[in-house]
Amino acid sequence: MIEKIHLSILREIARGGSLTAAAGSLNLTQSALSHTMKKLERQCNINLWLKDGRNIRLTEAGSYLLEQANRLLPQFERIDDTLRQFADNEKGSLGVGMECHPCYQWLLKVVQPFLAQSPGVDIDVKQRFQFGGMAALFNYDIDLLITPDPINKESIVFEPVFPYELVLVVSQHSKLNGLSQITPAQLSDQVLLTYPVETARLDIFQQFLLPAQCMPKLHKTLEATDIILQMVAANRGVAAMPKWLALEYANSLPIHLIRLGNSGIHKHIYVGYRKQEKLNKHIQTFITLAKSSGAALPAEV
Amino acid sequence: MIEKIHLSILREIARGGSLTAAAGSLNLTQSALSHTMKKLERQCNINLWLKDGRNIRLTEAGSYLLEQANRLLPQFERIDDTLRQFADNEKGSLGVGMECHPCYQWLLKVVQPFLAQSPGVDIDVKQRFQFGGMAALFNYDIDLLITPDPINKESIVFEPVFPYELVLVVSQHSKLNGLSQITPAQLSDQVLLTYPVETARLDIFQQFLLPAQCMPKLHKTLEATDIILQMVAANRGVAAMPKWLALEYANSLPIHLIRLGNSGIHKHIYVGYRKQEKLNKHIQTFITLAKSSGAALPAEV
DNA sequence: TCTCATGTATGAGAATTATTCATTTATAAA
DNA sequence: TTTATAAATGAATAATTCTCATACATGAGA
Question: Which of residues B135 and A291 earns the better pLDDT score?
Fold first, then answer.
């Protein structure tokens, strides 16, 4: 069976013109190469070269093998290089899972500096999970889970990345415009716009409406943050979202932000990862960037 | 440095799901594989897999290497196959050189059965040589030389392949039509058509005209046999060529064949090859086919 | 929670393979 | 011829790979 060494020897013979020269560049003796190749010739029952005077003339089989050597050996060399990159932690990929709809825009602010800082590392973002984000993390479908709702589990670590306040966004043409805070009952005649996830995962329901046993007049769901805010601006409904996110649009759209209840709903974004990967350089880099990203977000109008 | 064995082990792990299974299919022990891979991991300072319970979970570097294994190993297997074909003499190529213009049509009759008999062997025909056919044979530009004029040389063997008679071809409208033989002097008022090679290599000159110190009225050269014979048929000149070749056209063109001199000019086609390749199966196959091809040629009108 | 079964890691010694050294053979050049 | 250069080869040695025995880790089942 052909081995890498056979290809290497053949390539060096072609480069140097003789076995002796090849032996020099491979740091072996002429004898070693001769033995190695003769053994192959015996095993395969072929001649790779004929002696033409004191030179070597490749046979057809030999020329064929040389071609293959020139094709395959560079590939091995590339593999060695790439492996070195893995060793230096310059190479890799990070699967990021998102269980937090509005966080997408924030994620972009983290991904950008990450990619700049780690040129060899690719980031892949997943937003849909058959069995939920935790399962995806567990099954190695993703390496990081971004969520506002961490679940306490032995083998998964969650780190809070930044705090935010959930606020109500209304149109400046709404009768609610100008309010500084709001009660659940005041939403009873409003159309509530949310992302299309189960109510159980919407804090506006869990922490605000349901405890007060209130419901909005209508509940509509929309995929895109931009569209939700366009709808709000057009006074077609109200929406609850992170304050920092609403603030990003506050200058360009006629919207007004209102605190939910007396003291507001305060949450954290968490990043979760498998405990055993605590030392993974890419994961820690990501988390560091994520934490510092909070400072870059708009704080007030 | 990555070796083939590392790729093989990784591929078998992926196939069998465990080191132990891989060891089985590679006819080695689990211990051997573990040692081999650990050594690579130490050399490269990478982890290729992590133990996940009692299973193996490839790291990114490991997955990368597995991809490469699935890509490269089949190529090695193809090389092994091809080498086996070379060993079985099923694979190769034969460079055939031609120093005999009219032989081209005969060559086709040999090449066809050869290609059918040796499906893995390619034939390449060359007709122009910078330093002559012998030099080409010597320099391994070709493996076989087909010529009517063998040169006695130590390292080249020539074998006669079939005998032929050189005849004069004239138009049925020529005043020479009907003659059964001809003298050199009778060509003095004729236009002689030949292939464009030096007169020294034209037997009609060397063996017929020059010994009698005669010359044709005019000497014109043409590349193609078909055109020469069309010209002859139109009574625009006469030509000397192998009798068997002229006979191939005798039914379709108004031509007449005349013996040169009393007893005719008798020649042989020779096939030459390098002495050291006496045992080359393809060369011997070719020569056998060449010899038997003589029988298939037209003998008389 | 304690076996039992299964799978990987590892050290030491055995087995195998690769490499070198010393020669031989062949050939081109001086 | 002689000399120099290059490949092939046999025997001895060096290096490596592989196996054996065993430790370690984990999941399943009593």
Answer: A291
Q: Do B87 and A46 touch (CB under 8 A)?
A: yes
DSSP-assigned letter for residue B153 = B
B236: left (phi over 0), alpha (psi -120 to 50) or beta: alpha
| Residues whose beta carbon sits under 7 Å from strand C | A 5, 23, 27-29, 31-32, 35-36, 39, 51-54; B 13, 18-20, 30-31, 34-35, 37-38, 49, 51, 54-56
C-alpha distances in angstroms, A38 versus A31, A43, B286? 10, 9, 30
Q: Which nucleotides of C are covered by protein (CB under 7 A)?
A: 6-12, 18-22, 26-28
Cα A202 to Cα A148, A255, B29: the distances in Å are: 10, 21, 56
pLDDT level of residue A92 (50, 70, 90 thresholds): confident
In a domain, B301, yes or no: no
Q: E-strand spans in chain A?
A: 49-52, 55-58, 92-98, 121-126, 144-147, 156-171, 181-182, 191-194, 218-221, 238-242, 255-260, 265-274
Number of domain units in chain B: 3
**Residue B292 contacts A, CB cutoff 8 Å:** no
Q: Do B180 and B108 reside in the same domain of the chain?
A: no
Q: What pTM does this model have?
A: 0.72
Locate all alpha helices (DSSP H) within chain B, ordered by sequence.
4-16, 19-25, 30-44, 60-87, 104-117, 132-138, 203, 225-233, 243-250, 281-293
Q: For residue A301, is it within any domain?
A: no
Write down the mean pLDDT value for chain A.
90
